[in-house]
Design goal:
The protein is mainly β. The chain is 6% helix and 47% strand. It has one helix at residues 107-114; strands spanning 3-7, 10-12, 18-25, 32-39, 46-52, 58-60, 68-73, 78-83, 92-100, 122-123, 127-131. The strands form 2 sheets. Strands 2, 4, 5, 6, 9, 10 and 11 form a 7-stranded mixed beta sheet that branches. A hairpin with a 4-residue loop joins β7 (68-73) and β8. The protein is globular.
Length: 133
């Protein structure tokens, strides 16, 4: 079973940048689609960005398109979310979630996780991002 630990959250001013990290242990990320989800009080949970560990297929929510970039470092078994041009609306608790794909590449498992909330198999505890002046 894979364990996930998020880090990198904090307080940042509008227009600033943060990089979130999701460090995996207990299993290689080669077998998973990995996603970042966020939730703020009074708002629904949102799939922000997801990536296939098999072929690198990615998904971004419309609200973060062009501002956020998801990536993976195979040597460190870690997934990153680089966030730029941050807005107050980006505030929330960001969770790293892994979906076991059993060799399935392509966009289908990425969309299943991020766009439709299917296969939220393993969760980290989250890291809080606050965007405020």
């Amino acid at each position: 079973q894979v364990q996930l630990v998020e880090s990198g959250g904090g307080l940042v001013q509008p227009g600033g940048s943060l990089r979130l990290s999701c460090a995996a242990s207990g299993d290689t990320l080669d077998y998973y689609a990995i996603g970042w989800f966020r939730q703020a009080p009074g708002k629904d949970r949102e799939g922000v960005s997801c990536i296939s560990s098999i072929d690198g297929s990615t998904y971004y929510a419309d609200s973060v398109q062009g501002r956020f970039t998801i990536s993976r470092d195979n040597a460190k078994n870690t997934v990153y979310l680089q966030m730029s041009s941050l807005k107050p609306e980006d505030t929330g608790n960001y969770h790293c979630i892994a979906h076991r794909v059993d060799g399935q590449g392509g966009i289908t498992p990425v969309l299943a996780l991020c766009a439709y909330g299917y296969g939220m198999d393993y969760w980290g505890k989250g890291t809080l991002v606050t965007v405020s002046s």
